[in-house]
Amino acid sequence: MHLLGGMFPIALVASAASAHAQDARRLSLDLPAQRLGESVRALAALWGRTVLADATLVGKRQAPAIRGSYTIEEALNLLLAGSGLAVDRVGDSFVIRSMAGRGDPQDADGSTDIVVTGTRIRGAGPVGSNIVTVDRQDIERSGYATTQQILAALPQNFSGGANEGTVGFSVRNNSSTNFGFGSGINLRGLGTTSTLTLIDGNRPALGGGSGGFVDLTLIPSSAIERIEVLADGASAIYGSDAVAGVVNVRLRRDLDGAETRLRYGFADGFDEVQASQLASFHWASGRVIAAYEYYGRGRLGSADRAYATEDLRAFGGPDYRQDYANPGTIIAANGQVFGILRGQNGTGLAAGDLIPGVANLSDGRSDTELLPALKRHSAYAALEQDLGPNLKFRAQGFFADRRSSARYFPSNYGGVVVTAANPFYVDPLGTGEPVTVHYDFRPDLGPPRLDAHVTNWAGAASLDASFGRWNAELHGAYGAQRERQVTLNVPNYYRLALALADPDPATAYNLFADGSVTNPATTAKVRGGFVQTGHSRQWSSALKFDGPLFALPAGDVRMAIGGEYRHEWYGYSAVDDEFTPGPVDQGSAGFPLGRSIVAGYAELLAPLVGPEQNVPGIEQLDLSVAGRIERYSDVGTTANPRLGLSWKPVPALTLRSTFGTSFRAPSFSDTRHGPGLDQIIPLPLPDPASPTGASTVIALFGNRPDIGPEKARTWTLGFDFRPQRLPGLSISATWFDISYRDRISNVASELFSFLSQRGRFQSLITDSPSTATLAALYADPTFVNPYGIPASAVTVLVDARNANLSRTTERGLDFDIGYKGGREGRSYELGVSGTWLASLEQKLTATATSADVVSTIGNPVDLRLRGRASATFGKASLAMFVNYVDGYLNNGVTPAETVHSWTTLDLQLGYAIGGKRGPLQGVRLSLSVTNLFDAAPPYVNNRTAFSAAGFDPENASPAGRMIAVQLVKSW
């Protein structure tokens, strides 16, 4: 994937193919009369400039032949003469625009200028920022099939959090709420909720429990024109969530005709199929495009990967298998362990047949999936229609339906108690007392299975009007996502207890056999399950004006100003059939919740110095100022500014910087309250300062009522260097510094460390609470007392509620070095992109000391690289990519262990089969191999709250070598 920094192509036109050069440089041209788009691409490649244009502007227009020596501006003006189009310079780039509404009646399209991610001003780029773009060519060359795979390759992204591969491995970064098997993006490792994801500039409905992330797996990759990544705080432009940055997925609108795509890929253990159809129609005053994609993938089982096991002894690690096995393990009344004999049916088993001191073990990872099987259907349509010379209507709709299924490891809720009433009961001690059996129900019920169904609907419409040199846009959007997960093949412990107490051997449950011997009718009665459903909705409206305010010697000072209204809503419900006679409605868990947001913003772009002014040491100097105020109906008001500066001391070098503040509004899970969510519980906690080793505390759980937005300060400093004497070379680097405070922290997960680590938690501890305080807490409706502790025994009050407690400071460097050479039809490119994290310091509470967690398990590594090499030889093409993830420290085990780095190689070969005519015209065949050498993920002693495995899905994929063949036909 080729990552570009700075300005970038927006719709149809080509990106810079050689180094930046002076605009005054003259080149000899000999261009034939041809499509305008082809001539523009040729100029962009020859001068090494980026030229931006909307496809409807260029369309099927013909360009005249050009022969002679020209500057790039002279050549562009010659191409556009008489077309109703004009060209403007924006920073280092050129923008082709319509002259409609500006005194030129010849343009039939009436298109308006383009809005770039990171700014609200049309035809401009975000001043001072580094934009990373993955365009259509990058997607085609990458060899990846899905949107989440494309974004996972970004060095700025960390795969921790909501990800289809982390389900069952982690609870960090909203991964525990991912019951639809979705995947989000996690820029800088600051969490999926700290990255704002947009689709064509619109906020989609959120996925996951409580709406924790945007589900990228629903977006069809064949319908993507490009992905724009602003790895910088941008709340002044977009509002909440844009702390680590903004990812804007732009869907295709530039297709001229139709495109059919077929792909088949396979790896060891699974395969995938992808098919899509796109079609576009143009008429004099408008256009429409429609797209459909199907994607299906088989399940990747743990049995297909040697490291997907709880028994890590083969790798030099421990054996994490548990004694919930089949045959099972008996725990006698005195706690002694006995193994049940293999090779028998549990009938007539005697105490002497048991194996004392031996626990039968079972691998919980067996019969599970590393990646779920899935089938997805996605559809997209967009319409543009001129309603007059100065008025345009746009509309688009999106729909996706995904069904996923994965076998899951057993959820053991303690041992099963069996009394002497059970006809298969055996007592190893001969006392007749009840025994506890640790038993694996998978041979009886089948592997536990999670079946998920996700649907997403979205629609947006806008009216664009021009008034002289100003534009106005009225916009509205709606989105909804519904997720449902069904857990199957788990025991209902209430009905199991009845079956164990049944004295009839023909119908009683038998836990003492090797294998499944219980009556199938009894097994069917014991089978339970769990269903949870989430529903997210979001609708918005906006009004924006943008245009020039006044002229400076270097150009127009332009402004964008606007207002927005948005309403968010999330609902949840669950039905449990695990512990009661029948299915029971578990309620709404504090949902539904909704809130309204009103926002106003303004942005100013001022060209302070231009090349024509001949100011010594300043070839060009641009300044941008932006600010946004938002009022949330539930958490109050926030205001955020942003400054951007771009300085070009010489034509080959651009220095840039940004400064701003950002915020993240609390998610619905952070603000909900209600029975079962807020609790006050007295309980004993370990306390090294106590003579008994423990102190009795009263603990507060839930969410604090004063939870507010998380806040951040971000600044960047970078440069872009394109030397004139070495055409083709480009070097860019951006230093970033993020100070993220008031982060909502779940300190309850470390409750048992409160008193033993007072230095970290002192601000949450109150010693010797008053009698009145304790009386009020004991009288509170949320008070529960499972240990029967009187108020007189409580000596400490601890506040373990979620609150704005923690702080994160992150610093690092994004960089890209690339070289392009050759000529039209025979070109090549070499380069490398990467992110180096200098530090990632975290403070859990205000009184805690900072800890640098970069390159530790559960956090981003200090260095990620993606190298690229590609070449085009007429109809043939070759692309290679090297992906590098640095090693890190697994400090989740004692003693800490070193995890080795991981390097993979991707390769793609392509060939355009057809000529300019005939049935094979527009046919392209490609062969791609990702992870060419089938490099296994590095070994990680990865013990989780659920199970264990020998790799880390947050830093490596278990997919292995994937070979895929793709056929694309353009009609």
Please tell me about this protein's structure.
By secondary structure, the chain is mainly beta. The longest helix is centred in the N-terminal third of the chain and has 12 residues. Among the domains are: 96 residues, no CATH class; 188 residues, no CATH class; 107 residues, no CATH class. The strands form 10 sheets. The chain has a 22-stranded antiparallel β-barrel. It is 8% helix and 46% strand. The N terminus is likely disordered. The chain is globular, with a radius of gyration of 31 Å. Helix 1 runs antiparallel to helix 3.
- Structural class by secondary-structure content: mainly beta
Largest beta sheet, briefly? 22 strands, antiparallel, barrel
Oligomer: single chain
State the separation between the terminal residues, measured CA to CA.
26 Å
Q: Which regions contain 5 or more consecutive residues with pLDDT less than 50?
A: 1-23, 100-113
Question: What Rg, in angstroms, do the CA atoms define?
Answer: 31 Å
